[in-house]
Amino acid sequence: MITQKLNDQITRIGPNTPAGAVHRHYWQPAALSDEVTNDEPLVPVNLLGERLVLMRGASGDLVLTARVASPDEAPTHHPAPEDIRVVDGAPIYPVVEKNGIMFAYLGGGEPPAFPNFDCFRAPESHVFAFKGLWECNWLQALEIGIDPGHASFLHRFLQDEDPSDSYGKQFRDMAADTNMPITQVLREYPRPDINVDETPFGLKITSLRHMTNGLTHVRVTNQIFPSAICIPMSREMIITQWHVPIDDENCYWFTMFTSFQNPVDKEIMRAQRLKEHSLPDYAPLKNRSNNYNYDPEEQKTKTYTGMGLDINVHDQWAVESMGAIQDRTREHLGRGDAAIVRYRLMLRKAIKAVETGKLERLPMQDRQETPQIIGPLSNDAIADSEDWLAASQRSDMQRRTACPWDATV
């Protein structure tokens, strides 16, 4: 457990807060490219506790600046373009478009370079971007993503689906080189050993599910500082997902789905997700108001939660049910929370670095023309228990070698 003072320090993200100051030293997703059209030349953006507007400047470049808004404006409020008023003399924040997402930098000075992550260097044809609203603080949204053990329970499927209908869905693929669905692996081996290693971009999290016959299921996921994760979706795709603070009590997840082999079928993936979200606010249709469509009969035979087969809804329920800001003064972390513990230490070190002006100690503050950070490795593999590390790396290299775009590491 931690004190209330520390909980406030690591969760609140307004302009004059410790965690907010850290976030302002990084590029943050501000909007989807789909939101910025000729019909919508001014797009309201609520980010890091600020009420902003995304628009094209006189030179045609995208810029982000402050707009007039009431202090109690709802985080998903979308005023009509004719009602948007720009604040005179407000800072102009730079914006860069990367594979379907508009990233903004709200800090001072020169922004850092984008790392050479797979989601950024893959061609546009191999990346699909989407977002969704969660009504909770950004940190609990992130922490569920770096908890490898939760998938065996929260996402437990009591029946395994036909993998031929797995496209665009997580935990539907077959485990590597087997006829066993990932859902079965997670269900039958629910207590992984968890290794956590610090990296230049954040944390590498390896969960080991020791199976029968001397085999081990190896799942490598990553925490990308300050608020993103990179995880395997299937043997072909990875997910890079940012948990972007709107304000202290709401966040958007922005996701890039990156394919190593074939171009992404964006129409299928967009249609799958639009069935679950309303526009223009990208709010989930299953939410607190309808109890996330909880069905006790389904819970008896199909899923652990009784909330359908979309695992995003399971995560949403879990993080929103903790309250707008999770009360960490009552928690008791254990061995399975190793990545969460390491991340919070990293965040506190980053807060201290910003407060003391030692910005060189922040992760991923590379300002060289050629980004030095590549990858990262995010995949599932099944290997001999004595050879799990090398086997995981070989699996990643095989996928990259066959990739039609430059995925070399």
UniProtKB/TrEMBL annotation:
Pfam family, one: LigXa_C
Molecular function per GO: 2 iron, 2 sulfur cluster binding; phthalate 4,5-dioxygenase activity
Keyword Nucleotide-binding: no
Keyword terms: Dioxygenase, Oxidoreductase
InterPro entries noted in UniProt: LigXa_C, Rieske_2Fe-2S_sf
CDD domains in the record: RHO_alpha_C_DMO-like
Domain of life: Bacteria
Domain LigXa-like C-terminal: 112-359
Entry keyword annotation includes DNA-binding: no
Entry protein name: Phthalate 4,5-dioxygenase oxygenase subunit
Highest classification ranks of the organism: Bacteria, Pseudomonadati, Pseudomonadota, Alphaproteobacteria, Rhodobacterales
Encoding gene (name): pht3_1
